[in-house]
From TrEMBL, chain A:
It holds the Pfam family BPD_transp_2. It is found in: Cell membrane. The chain crosses the membrane at residues 7-25, 31-50, 57-76, 82-102, 109-129, 149-168, 198-221, 227-245, 275-295. Keywords: Cell membrane, Membrane, Transmembrane, Transmembrane helix. It comes from Roseinatronobacter alkalisoli. Its main location: membrane. This is Branched-chain amino acid ABC transporter permease. Coiled coil: none annotated. It comes from the Bacteria.
Automatic annotation (TrEMBL), chain B:
Keywords: Amino-acid transport, Cell membrane, Membrane, Transmembrane, Transmembrane helix, Transport. Pfam families: BPD_transp_2 (PF02653). InterPro entries: ABC_transp_permease, BCAA_transport_permease. CDD domains: TM_PBP1_LivH_like. It is found in: Cell membrane. The keyword Transmembrane applies. Belongs to the binding-protein-dependent transport system permease family. LivHM subfamily. It is a multi-pass membrane protein. This is Branched-chain amino acid ABC transporter permease. The chain crosses the membrane at residues 6-24, 31-51, 57-77, 98-122, 142-160, 181-214, 226-251, 258-278. The keyword Iron does not apply.
TrEMBL record, chain C:
Pfam families: Peripla_BP_6 (PF13458). InterPro entries: BCAA_transport (IPR051010), Leu-bd (IPR028081), Peripla_BP_I (IPR028082). This is Amino acid ABC transporter substrate-binding protein. Residues 1-25 form the signal peptide. It comes from Roseinatronobacter alkalisoli. Belongs to the leucine-binding protein family. The lineage of its organism: Bacteria, Pseudomonadati, Pseudomonadota, Alphaproteobacteria, Rhodobacterales. Residues 29-378 form the Leucine-binding protein domain.
Amino acid sequence: MSAREIRNLILSAMAFGVVALLPFYDTGYILSIATTMAMFTVLATSWALFSGPTHYISLATAAFFGLGTFVTGYGFQTMPYWSLPLIAGVLGAGLAGLVGMVTLRLSGVYFVIFTLGLAELVRQLVTWVQNRTGQRGMYVLTSITERDIYWQLLGMAALVFLVGWLIGRSRLGFALRIIGNDETVAKHSGINTALAKVLLFMVSGAAAAIVGAMLAPRYIYIEPSTAFAPILSFQVVIMALLGGTGRLWGPVAGVIPFTLLWEFISRHAPNQTLLLLGLAFLLIVYVLPGGVVGLQARLKHRFGQGGH
Amino acid sequence: MFFILITGLLLGGTYALIAMGLNLQYGVARIMNLANGEMLVAGGFAAFWVYTAGQVSPIAALIVVAPVAFVVNWLIYRIMLRPLVKRAKSRGALEVDSILATFGLSFALVGIMSWMFGGGYFNYSYLAQRVDIFGSSYGQNRVVAFAIASLIAAGLWLWLSYTRAGLNMRAVAVSPDSARLVGIDVTAVSALAFGLGGAVTATGGALISMFFTLDASVGVLFTMKALIIVIMGGVGDIRGTIVAALILGIAETFVARIIDPGLTLAAAYVLFLGVLLFRPQGLFGKQPT
Amino acid sequence: MKRRSLMTTVAAVAVMMGSLGAASAQDAIKLGAAAPKTGPLAGGADVTHWPAVRLWVHQTNEAGGLQLADGPALIELIEYDDQTNPQQAIQAAQRLATQDRVDFMVAPYSTGLNLAAAPIFSQLGYPQITGTNVTNQQPELSAQFPGMFFVLGRTGVMAEDTAQVLVDLRESGDIGNRVALVNVADAFGIEMSGISRAVLEENGFEIVYQTSYPLGTQDIAPIIDGAKAANPDAFIAWSYPGDTFALTDQAIVQDFAPSVFFTAVATAFPSYYGRFGQQAEGVMGMGGVNPDDPAFQAFAEAHQELAGQGPDFWASASTYATLEILGQAIEATGSRDRAVVMEYLQDNSNSYETVLGPVQFNDMNDNERYWTVGQWQDGVFRGVAARGRDGVSDVVLKDGWD
């Protein structure tokens, strides 16, 4: 480990520590925005772990997230609470592994639409099973507060960053960078590309399912139409791409401004919220190609601070 | 049995109306248009407005709806999307950019529609009488929509197959770079395809509004359906979209009537995922080289 | 002549001063409202929620505001769009409470959004008087959220009363034993369908056709075909707006005309009658009102005038009633202090005069008197079954579509 890496690690740990103190400062408005940010940070970062290097755009986040909320919905009365995110993670990884094995030979837009279809399929099946068994709407009534959820999400974010950092240093990360650049080369150089992709897809699937399990007490009322809402998948993609997927910190750089922007528009234009959000998206696409990471790279280039 | 077949065909016709426009937009102009459903709802709004304000038949309204939608979509491509196409280094980069941009566009369109017309449901009664075919009854409006869908599909296919402009369009669909080499103005052809696609989608919306209850926010449901049909049929081939639409229509009706209506959408997605697994390029798609 | 005009001017100025003085004696009471303006539930909120909320604020201000101990105060309404998204509903409630510092909040629209926002209401001490939250969990919910009140009624009761209508019709020899039961496959439809099936079977009905269909389905022909083939005496559908319209449309097209035709949400919308006209006669649905009640008539007229559309004959009135209850609690205590108002609301001995008639909460914060089943009769959606309400009309059998 180089001195620079140690320094970055310490700085990151300190940053997490500071952010974790937030609930002592405010438990209302700011905390509720921060919880939303923490949630999207985990979702977008774990999404980018897979999609960044492979350039596969997955719209399956909602499937894993919904799965997780349902794990909590079914299990919170009978099982210890701490076990639920773990179960959700295992199930999420399992589903992702299954899907990954059969689909990762699809490329480009086919994969995109496949994952979208997958999320809808899972939602339909869950609804159908609920209907057959006469299962009613689930009320997750717990004593868990927003502060608890915030800390859980923060812990999860730290874990995702750690995993991302370790992958970046590992043979797997190396393999993935090559896949992203040229899959044929990767194959010829003896890298098991399929396995590498499936493993990463499992990581992102597990993370999304865990987030779902953690968020269920916040939503209280669990029903398929909100748990599997496809808008979530799109939000995650937009935020991650806005930040940029080339760096581990990229998605966070998208999540924070995006959440603030969303909140700002919701507050100041209650009757034109969607219209202005849409225009803001468009502006971002035109003004910030390559996301915030791209902007940073260009600024560095311009001011000659490359420091190679 | 006839009931399932005819109901399935009618539904397939509806699906073809939803998806044919997107096929042109994605297949030729290479824009994965996530605002497709909103354009459809806008067509429906126009028909609703014309019908309730002036008692003009939604079918007659097509004479105005289709050209207006063509111009609007043509402008969207020239002003909004062309810069993205120009700056994209690869097809993948363009896909990412167009997903982001048209997602933003879909939000903006929902915002504009709910601002102008409110968020409420709108529907009206037009040709809601029954027509008997082989002993079962069907809605006249659905039969009429199916007939017009067939006309549009046949017209598009003939135009693409037998005219110079259609040939150019197919050339761009197969390979924009080669098309450019043989002197085709790729930008103009793409803009034409995008505008035409938008016109077909809005026409579909006007027809569907005869029997669907719509509201400003419902577009995303149509977008998802259209994406699935286009990908299942194969990108850039109008026949694939039509076949996929009819297969889905009949399969969903069969499942709903024989197995369980609760599984119709699940069956549609299973079918779609199955096709992709065994024929990743879609039913009529060309094997990628 | 000149003197008279001078006099009227003076009088007018005096009146203006007076009203200005009254209004400026107090800061306005800030009322926050977050509900869908976009997203899947926007269509319903646009009919049921927003017009009722705006109407109450408009009328209250016209009448000079709410009477507090130290004079009248006007209402200032702050609206947000929660985009039918629980995440946004939570944030909007937080924003209203801590940024806009509203004095009171209107409960959100629909069961799911009400529950998502409930912890915020509860922690910050805002009364949450819900008008569109239909659930069976009143005991658990009121224990967890003591400031949550339920005006619309219980799912279980609604499903039971619907079944009871069939039982009564069979007793009187009007219909037979065969029922077709369908539902939209989401929490609401599943719950209602489960309860009504149990009640119907208990009463010896035969369920000859039962199925569900996915949320958002409007291609309903196979379901009507299946139901028709089973030849039922009664057709019960726990449906949502889009499919309510589609089910009726298809039943007309396929000439499926059982003696009882029941569809759930949106059957009570004026636009339902607007779409189907004479053919809607005899269709039953959830809710209902007593259209002969002058209080309701006045409400409907004012609603039409302000919103350009009539109220829906079910939850519009209960949404409006939630604000009447809040307003009366504020005036009774003469205070804008939430804790005081909350205490008043939680006192079960208090009752409120609303457009629904008198409302009183039980020890689970539950209103026990409400309409359960309605039927289109002569262009109005009359209540044909209710708990504790007067003016229940007789059920008529549906006599074909044409």
